[in-house]
Amino acid sequence: MDLTTNYMGLTLPTPIIAGSSGMTSSVKQIKALADNGAGAVVLKSIFEEEVMHEYADFIQTAKTEYGDPQYFDYDGQRNPIEYYDYMIREENLKKYIELVEGCKASVKIPVIASINCFFYSVEWLSYAANLQRAGADGLELNMFFPPTDFKHFREEKEALYFKIAEQVTQAVSIPVALKISPYFTDLGPMIQRLSKTGIKGIVLFNRFFSPDFDIDKLEVKPSFVFSTPSDLALSLRWIAVMANKVDCHLAASTGVHDAAAVIKLLLAGAHAVQVASCLYKNGPTFIREMLGGLEAWMTGKRYRDLADFRGKLSQERSADPAIYERAQFMRYFGGKRNVRL
Ligand SMILES: Cc1cc2nc3c(=O)[nH]c(=O)nc-3n(C[C@H](O)[C@H](O)[C@H](O)COP(=O)(O)O)c2cc1C
Q1: Ligand 1 atom nearest residue 208's Cα
Q2: Beta-carbon count within 10 A of 214 CB
């Protein structure tokens, strides 16, 4: 049985990618994921914001201990604030580069580095160039400019997605994917237009940390970290709708908790399927379990490779394309009296 897939021009031995998360932040874990059949790995993102937080912490500590950091005396050559900003950035980037290099030395599957920077930051380009140099096989731009930002207009924020995608793809020769959220006004056309920027893959969709409330302590607390199987619905619909309407490959992310979900997303038209929550819950061996389920299903259907069935249930190839656009819980779907609500 042949489970290889081509995703953004890279050859993956299997279609299951270990998605970006804490599970992909060390060489040891990544080796375990590869040993259990991951087709590729997307490393935990390098976050520009994290660098900024470290910098802010440093300045705070320095102020408490030494007074105004403007007056730090170390070599009299450079502005100390700029110097420490630079040092912290370099230290973080160095650690991430070491992670890329360590993975490349330990696993044969493609290693995709992941970048998350601020809106207007030039760091997108700098990180991309550095990670290509470190040996990453591809890049995933974890791009999310929150819709909770009220200072900038939608057009301005959307334009940045295009600008960054175009500039990064021109700056590096390795394939670049965009991992996006579903929070766009006009999602379908937006995905289609993004696919024409020179990128080789789009990941539908990222899932974010959400706040929850502790009603006894009357506090906000972090929660809903992991997805549930019902979260699959959103990525399934959108992979099926967008397959064959984009100029790049699609990878699915969110809500994959068993082999059936992997199969559904391939039937919808995905070239690869990313998993994160299920790895936290079941460990790296769960990839092997899901691959076993995929192979058993393919054997039953007499499919020999993924191309035999990829996209078979995409909207374009569906006998009932309208079903993908239904939104309301009406009594009758597709003219058939088979759904009672
Ligand atoms: C603890 C945790 C950390 C994550 N860190 C990142 C990250 O650094 N970058 C990123 O693009 N996605 C990150 N994600 C999102 C996952 O890659 C994935 O898109 C999301 O969890 C949905 O997939 P799932 O349903 O398989 O969990 C993280 C997810 C979890 C649960």
Answers
A1: 15
A2: 10
Is the Cα torsion angle 95, 198, 314, 11 positive or negative in sign?
negative
Q: What is the percent of the chain with per-residue pLDDT over 70, rounded to a whole number?
A: 85
Separation in Å, CA 5 to CA 39, 75, 125, 266: 8, 54, 28, 11
Closest ligand 1 atom number to CA of residue 279: 26
The two tokens of residue 209 are 């940390």
Please give the model's pTM, rounded to 2 decimal places.
0.90
Rounded CA-CA distance 305/1 in Å is 6
In the prediction, which pLDDT does 63 show?
60
Contact 18, 278 (CB under 8 A): no
Query: Which stretches of the chain score pLDDT less than 70?
Result: 51-86, 330-341
Q: Atom 19, ligand 1: which residue's CA is nearest?
A: 206
Contact 257, 278 (CB under 8 A): yes
Question: Ligand 1 pocket test: which of 207, 239, 264, 290 has the largest number of ligand atoms within 8 Å of its C-beta?
Answer: 207
**Residues within 6 Å of ligand 1 by CB:** 19-22, 44-45, 114, 142, 179, 206-207, 225-227, 231, 253-256, 275-278
- Cβ partners under 8 Å of residue 80, min gap 6: 69, 70, 72, 74
Cβ within 8 Å of residue 59, ≥6 positions away: 69, 81, 84
